[in-house]
């Protein structure tokens, strides 16, 4: 791949352009907002000048509702040898393209499973896709050349290609992306009118649950509007669980011992099913989740502290498998949780104590 045209210079489009430009591809940028294209160009993502002829690959990175029309126009105008989109839904745009009479042999639907809470070209980074799955949804009509171009794009962005059927993809992202976003927003919405004393008690749990609720609502309306059926089906199943859970909690308020036991059993059932589902989430490097031990350490909020504790872990010969920080309310300190292999706990804790760190149970 020597040349590419990115249509849509938001977070995803500009991030792909930055990755390609950084690896020697001559990237052209186009956006309905010329200022956005100029901003992306100023960041080194390519040029906002139109290409002189067909490029190797046209990457359409526009909201789902506009994908089919944008692709159809690009194909009609012969802008490239191959065409892909990076929308978060795949079945709908393909069917819309078919209805528009577009030649689908040069088209391949894709979806990089990466993003941020911020949007726009200023939020883009060349490493956004590194190590992340990038779904490809070829059909029997897809030219091998286009598939190879898409695979080259994924490799240049240092992502991991995953081949799926388009409708299977849409059902999958409804489960692992779209529904969680709605549920996060619903929980976060409870905080809007909550008493200030309650909000001040927010800990890491509520921060984890509501993190993705900070995303752009207009963008998510467009995403959800393109995949409403699968999301509604999953939410209906969640609603049934919520109804059962409410009944279980009400039963715990009853004076009758049998009803209270029934309520406790109902709660335990949903919690155990949650345990079983959580255990299926891939762990480090996509492997099965490992049973790590957590070493919790008090850490000051000042420059160099993270570097120092990681250096001390290295001195102990311990690999940190994962890390979390829980910030203390109203204090310039927090608790850092270092996840390590069980056999490494003794060596790590001994070294950290020798280096003056304050450990917590």
TrEMBL record:
Reaction(s) the record says it catalyses: prephenate + NAD(+) = 3-(4-hydroxyphenyl)pyruvate + CO2 + NADH
Signal peptide range in chain numbering: none
Pathway noted in the entry: Amino-acid biosynthesis; L-tyrosine biosynthesis; (4-hydroxyphenyl)pyruvate from prephenate (NAD(+) route): step 1/1
Domain of life of the source: Bacteria
EC number annotated for this UniProt entry: 1.3.1.12
InterPro entries in the record: 6-PGluconate_DH-like_C_sf (IPR008927), ACT-like_dom_sf (IPR045865), ACT_dom (IPR002912), NAD(P)-bd_dom_sf (IPR036291), PDH_C (IPR046825), PDH_N (IPR046826), Preph/Arog_dehydrog (IPR050812), Prephen_DH (IPR003099)
Keyword Thylakoid: no
A Gene Ontology BP annotation from the UniProt entry: tyrosine biosynthetic process
GO MF, any single term: prephenate dehydrogenase (NADP+) activity
Keywords associated with the record: Amino-acid biosynthesis, Aromatic amino acid biosynthesis, NAD, Oxidoreductase, Tyrosine biosynthesis
Domain Prephenate/arogenate dehydrogenase per the UniProt entry, residue ranges: 2-289
NCBIfam families: PRK06545.2-1, PRK06545.2-3, PRK06545.2-4
Lineage, broadest ranks: Bacteria, Bacillati, Actinomycetota, Actinomycetes, Streptosporangiales
Family note: Belongs to the prephenate/arogenate dehydrogenase family.
Ranges for domain ACT: 294-361
One Pfam entry name: PDH_N
Disordered: annotated segments: 258-287
Protein name as it appears in the record: Prephenate dehydrogenase
């Amino acid at each position: 791949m020597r040349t590419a045209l990115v249509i849509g210079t938001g977070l995803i489009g500009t991030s792909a352009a930055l990755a390609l430009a950084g690896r020697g591809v001559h990237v052209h940028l186009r956006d309905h907002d010329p200022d956005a294209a100029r901003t992306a160009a100023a960041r080194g993502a390519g040029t906002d000048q139109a290409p002189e002829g067909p490029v190797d690959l046209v990457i359409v990175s526009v909201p789902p509702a506009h994908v089919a029309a944008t692709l159809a126009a690009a194909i009609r105008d012969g802008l490239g040898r191959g065409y892909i989109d990076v929308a978060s839904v795949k079945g709908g745009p393909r069917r819309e393209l078919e209805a528009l009479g577009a030649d689908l042999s040069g088209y391949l639907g894709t979806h990089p499973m990466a993003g941020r809470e911020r949007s726009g070209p200023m939020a883009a980074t060349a490493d956004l896709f590194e190590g992340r799955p990038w779904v490809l949804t070829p059909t029997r009509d897809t030219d091998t050349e286009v598939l190879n171009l898409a695979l080259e794009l994924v490799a240049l962005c240092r992502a991991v290609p995953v081949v799926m059927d388009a409708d299977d993809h849409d059902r999958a992202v409804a489960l692992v992306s779209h529904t969680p976003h709605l549920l996060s927003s619903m929980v976060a919405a409870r905080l809007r009118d909550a008493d200030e004393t309650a909000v001040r008690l927010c800990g890491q749990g509520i921060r984890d649950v509501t993190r993705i609720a900070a995303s752009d609502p207009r963008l998510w309306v467009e995403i959800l509007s393109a995949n409403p059926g699968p999301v509604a089906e999953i939410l209906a199943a969640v609603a049934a669980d919520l109804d059962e859970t409410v009944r279980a909690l009400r039963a715990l308020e009853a004076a009758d011992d049998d009803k209270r036991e029934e309520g406790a059993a109902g709660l335990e059932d949903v919690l155990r099913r949650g345990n079983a589902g959580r255990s299926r989430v891939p762990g480090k490097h996509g492997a099965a989740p490992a049973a790590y031990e957590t070493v919790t350490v008090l850490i000051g909020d000042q420059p160099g502290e993270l570097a120092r504790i990681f250096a001390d872990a290295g001195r102990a010969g311990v690999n940190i498998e994962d890390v979390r920080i829980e910030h203390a309310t109203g204090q310039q300190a927090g608790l850092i949780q270092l996840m390590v292999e069980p056999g490494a706990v003794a060596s790590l804790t001994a070294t950290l104590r020798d280096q003056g760190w304050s450990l917590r149970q």
